[in-house]
Amino acid sequence: MIELKQVNKYYGSHQVLFDVDLTIQLQERVVIIGPSGSGKSTMLRCMNGLESIQTGDVRYRGQSLLDKRKLRMIRREVGMVFQRFHLFPHRTALENVMEGPVWVKGMKKSEARERAAELLAKVGLADKMNNVPSRLSGGQQQRVAIARALAMEPKVMLFDEPTSALDPELVGEVLTVMKQLAAEGMSMVVVTHEMGFAREVADRVLFMDQGRLIESGMPDEVLGKPREERTKAFLSRIL
Ligand code: ADP
Ligand code: MG
Fold first, then answer.
1. One GO CC annotation, please (predicted)?
2. Most CB contacts within 10 A, which of 3, 52, 121, 234?
């Protein structure tokens, strides 16, 4: 589904990704962990072309993101959810979810509205559709952001620490929606430090440090019996 081949990424002269090789299979659920500044967000953003790379290649279903003509199609099919929700503050939940299908896909408003209402119901917000973001909790806002991404009918979803800006009691409702998506067979790449989620949902956990993929394996292996010292040290700090 997504392939990174020997990816090197610099910001100016500062290298932040080193020879990253990674393949995400169709319907695979991959969790990425690692210290702050290790390049997790940058890697995720490379997967949908939000960041350019200096050497190597990123492919989505065999099509290189280096081909700028493909980028629009790829961004549509690769959905992304951020730590901060980035909703339009003056639009209701429903309008936030309708926006992409109407403006990007040219869907009729009536149809987009109907679809948006279905998606908001799916994430448990049937009764909040007409609220603006400031009238929603952080967990509700993040669920709107997930519904908005789903409205584009993505084939894979990227989540960048989707619960780390939330109060602890609101984390569960967002993870529940993500687990539901996983159960439906959505391909997902999730940066998170929610170890319960990783153990329950991930087919594979990757540990990243200083711009490199250090370790990759089944959740029980990487989280339970890590091979690398750096993984052990990281896990002992966060658990
Ligand atoms: P993580 O998500 O693992 O915390 P990031 O991918 O955000 O890591 O950052 C990796 C490195 O790239 C860090 O050293 C960070 O300071 C740097 N970096 C991230 N974004 C930018 C940017 N837009 N310009 C310059 N440096 C950046
Ligand atoms: Mg990050």
1. plasma membrane
2. 234
